[in-house]
Design brief:
- With 288 residues, the protein is of the alpha+beta class.
- It folds into 2 domains: 10-150, Trna Endonuclease, Chain: A, domain 1, CATH 3.40.1350.10; 159-287, Alpha-Beta Complex (Aspartate Aminotransferase, domain 1).
- It is built from 8 helices and 14 strands.
- Strands 1, 2, 3, 4, 5, 6 and 7 form a 7-stranded mixed sheet that branches.
- Helix 4 packs across helix 5.
- Residues 153-163 have low confidence and may be disordered.
Length: 288
């Protein structure tokens, strides 16, 4: 067996390189998004036009959870314009496609301490990930290495994070009485095993409260033609498998241990038993 030989890599600057540039980095990531270290992501779009706001460098997706990653690349050190552009593109995409979870990703050669101090003010409100990239050379070969220096904080649903209150009229005007009535039907199911809960209307979703205290073991997000049930169950494969068998549109988010079910009035009446079981298990899990 040949003895392994240690070779010290040479660190290069992409910004000052005579042949390489941002387009080259973009192409390498597009060829294999897994090099970012964010999981087995796939390329969704490249240089995606943002109306009135330029082009998004890369849009990546997780094929299992359908989460989206809005990626912006910068050579050299991070600056204010790059931060603003990254957040702006993330915000545009999440507003255009609210059915997905979105993550803002900044990739730069130098993540400065000033940048970390500024961006930490947003973290917890904006799901932001910062990756520092290094171009290294060993012999006549080069490679890119990405290091996560800032990870997003999981957003919760505690009382002080719920956001501004809305009311029933707010959601009825948005989705129509038929969709809001589905939330009423689900509340009736909940009362079978957990009486006393009421719907709590917020501008982002409809939660649950009992005796004035929020307890969002599930929450509901009205859409124009359907209602989304979202909750946290962990890994209850039996329930989730049954849901898939019904033909309901079910999305899992393993990173957060949550799920999302899209359904209509027809779906509710057709799958009353399985939905009742799901809601009850979510409630019991919240008590553990």
């Amino acid at each position: 067996m040949n003895e392994l030989k240690f070779v010290k890599p040479e660190k290069l600057s992409i910004k000052n390189h005579p042949q390489l540039n941002e387009k080259w980095v973009q192409e390498r990531i597009a060829e294999d998004p897994s090099i970012l270290g964010l999981g087995d992501l796939q390329l969704k779009d490249i240089e995606k036009i943002q109306p009135g706001a330029g082009r998004l460098d890369l849009l990546l997706r997780d094929p299992e959870t359908e989460e989206r990653y809005e990626v912006e690349i910068q050579l050299g050190a991070t600056d204010e314009s790059h931060i603003i552009r990254t957040i702006e593109y993330w915000d545009l995409e999440r507003k255009r496609y609210p059915q997905y979870d979105h993550h803002a990703v900044i990739v730069a050669e130098d993540i400065t301490s000033r940048f970390l101090n500024v961006i930490s003010l947003f973290n917890g409100h904006i799901p932001l990930i910062a990756l520092q990239m290094r171009l290294i050379k060993i012999g006549d070969q080069i490679s890119l290495i990405f290091t996560k220096v800032l990870d997003e904080l999981a957003l919760g649903f505690e009382e002080d994070e719920e956001g501004p209150e809305a009311d029933r009229d707010y959601w009825t005007k948005y989705s129509g009485m038929e969709i809001i009535s589905l939330a009423d039907e689900l509340l009736k199911i909940i009362h079978n095993f957990a009486p006393g809960f009421k719907l709590k209307y917020n501008k982002q979703y409809i939660g649950l409260a009992k005796e004035g205290m929020a307890n969002n073991f599930v929450w509901f997000t009205p859409r124009k033609k359907c209602l989304l049930i979202e909750g946290k169950l962990g890994k209850l494969e039996e329930i989730l498998n049954k849901l898939r068998e019904t033909g309901l549109d079910v999305t899992e988010y393993p990173k957060w241990g949550t799920y999302r079910i899209k359904f209509t009035e027809k779906d509710l009446h057709k799958n009353m038993e399985i939905l009742s079981s799901l809601l009850e298990k979510a409630y019991k899990a919240s008590l553990e």
